[in-house]
Amino acid sequence: MDKVYLGLKVAIIVIMVILFVQNIRVVEVNFLGWSLSLPLALLLVVVYVLGMVSGKGMMALIRRLQRQSSSR
User: Fold this and answer.
1) What local confidence, expressed as pLDDT, does residue 42 receive?
2) For position 20, what pLDDT does the model report?
3) Is the dihedral of CA 41, 46, 49, 51 positive or negative?
4) CA 39 → CA 4, 13, 15, 42, distances in Å?
5) Where are its TM segments located (predicted)?
6) How far is it, in rounded angstroms, from Cα 54 to Cα 47?
7) Residue 72 CB: number of other CB atoms within 10 A?
8) What is the distance between the alpha carbons of residues 34 and 36, in angstroms, rounded to a whole number?
9) Consecutive 10-residue runs of the chain (72 residues): their mean pLDDT?
10) Tell me, what's the pLDDT at 35?
11) Is the torsion defined by CA of 27, 49, 52, 60 positive or negative?
12) How many whole angstroms separate alpha carbon 33 and alpha carbon 39?
């Protein structure tokens, strides 16, 4: 099963590298009055990492709430 997870991780990394290489052009991002120009690939990586971090945080919060409700 570990080999399956490793293969899945490698496949995701390969897909991300292909996505990065094919999307080098610069785009403008506007958010709450701020304007930022950066390569689309970098924006995709930042959004991907923020999604991973927020997903991990949400899962930790859910686990903590479940432990608190089961201990009562």
Assistant:
1) 86
2) 80
3) negative
4) 33, 19, 17, 5
5) 7-24, 36-62
6) 10
7) 4
8) 7
9) 90 87 88 90 87 90 86 70
10) 92
11) negative
12) 19
Count of residues making up the chain: 72
Encoded tokens for 61: 């919060």
One-letter amino acid identity for 34? W
pTM above 0.70, yes or no: no
> Could you give the CA distance from residue 26 to residue 29 in angstroms, rounded to a whole number?
10
- Return the SS3 of 9: helix
Please report the sign of the dihedral spanned by the C-alpha atoms of residue 14, residue 11, residue 53, residue 22: positive
Q: Which helix (H) or strand (E) holds 15?
A: helix 2-22
